[in-house]
Amino acid sequence: MELNTTSAGQLPNTTTANPDTYAPIYALKILEVVYLSFITVIGTIGNLLVIFSIIYAKRVHKSGNLFIINLAVADLIVTGFYLPTVIANVIAGGNALPNAACQVAAYLITVSCVCSVSNLTCIAINRYLVIVHPCWYEAHYTKRKTFLAVLLVWIWSNFLTSPTLFGWSGLGYDPKMVGCAWDDQAAISYNATFMTLAVFAPLITICICYGRLYRCVRNRGRWIRSFAVSPSNVLRQAKERRSLQKEINLLKTLATALAFFILCWMPYAFSVTFDPKGIPHKSKQIVAWFGLSNSAVNFIVYGVMNTTYRKGYKNLLRLLCCCKKPTLSRLPSVFRHYNESRNNNEHASPHRANNSLPVGESNSNIHQYKGVS
Question: Of 121, 123, 194, 224, which residue is the least packed, with the fewest Cβ within 10 Å?
Answer without folding.
Answer: 224
